[in-house]
Amino acid sequence: MRIILKAANARNIRHRPPANIILASGSPRRKRLLRKIVRSFTVRPARISERLLRGEGNTAACMRLAEAKARASARRSGGAVVIGADTIAYRGKKIYRKTGSARTALRILLELSGRAHYVVTGVAVVFPGGKCVKYFVRAAVRMKKLTPKMLESYLKSGEWKGRAGSYDVSGKGKRLVERVKGERETVVGLPLKKLRLVLKK
Prior knowledge:
Blueprint: H1 2-14, E1 21-23, H2 28-34, E2 42-43, H3 58-74, E3 81-91, E4 94-96, H4 102-112, E5 116-126, E6 132-143, H5 148-157, E7 177-181, H6 184-188, H7 192-200
Parallel strand pairs: 1-2, 1-3
Antiparallel strand pairs: 3-4, 3-5, 5-6, 6-7
């Protein structure tokens, strides 16, 4: 029995994530999610321009920005595995990035009210030596029909600030959401299923 346990422990050690990991994001939500699969890591936000390029698709944009964030942080983090992520919410051709004002948040929430939209998160993992593994995950979100009372309450909370789509499905914003089709962590900002596999490589 003891031999079997030792073998199992050895397998677990081989499959643990790398010891030195950096999250190139200051998002408390991404930090909270990463803690689910990594015990210890350093937060080192990247300072880059997050403007979208003309004619750039949503998927291409979020993966490009995720890699740019990871590589910017990696340049200051020799020998570490660096994780970058970027999230875009969209409905048709309308793109919803980080919200900076209550007026904008209200407009976006009214546009999404009672309708479905999509959220795509791109993730880039840069390993020592410069190798980069990128992927994206998309989820569909249907919002409830938002009443004036619901909107007023949520806008007062301030939770919409800096959120793609002007809501946080991991916080008070979950009351605005009817259902999520896909990995919920994608909407929050860091899909974990694929990330867990990438970090084991």
